[in-house]
Amino acid sequence: MELTLEVAQKLLATQPFSVLVGARVTAFGDGGATLELDIREDLQQQNGFLHGGVLSYAADNALTFAGGTALGPEVLTGGFTINYLRPAQGDVLRAVAKVAHATSRQATCTCELRTVDGTTETLCALAQGTVIAVRR
User: Fold this and answer.
1) What is the average pLDDT across 90-96?
2) I need a surface site. Which of 20, 44, 51, 89 has the fewest CB within 10 A?
């Protein structure tokens, strides 16, 4: 199967949690993937900032989709770390992940998470993770 943006969008649509948070893949290919979601009130914590769990979700999925550009469609997150840099607030969360290094079995990827408010983007978190190919 050739992995295209359309295929990535269809794969994301099969994930019930991704549908719940309203995530969308907006770029895919050439060693990278971008995942976006609208920042809604029901995704915020008590101080009005986007919940850290939503940031982690976005990093996890963006990293895994990026890894899939190098390893194919059957991949899993092997692990990831995230550093929260500032509270996330704005209109949209954008997670941009890129493959830093890949072998035939695993890919190490990085992800920048930014909030978008109008035309202003603000870096709010950084993540790095390992994506592994599922062999059946």
Assistant:
1) 98
2) 20
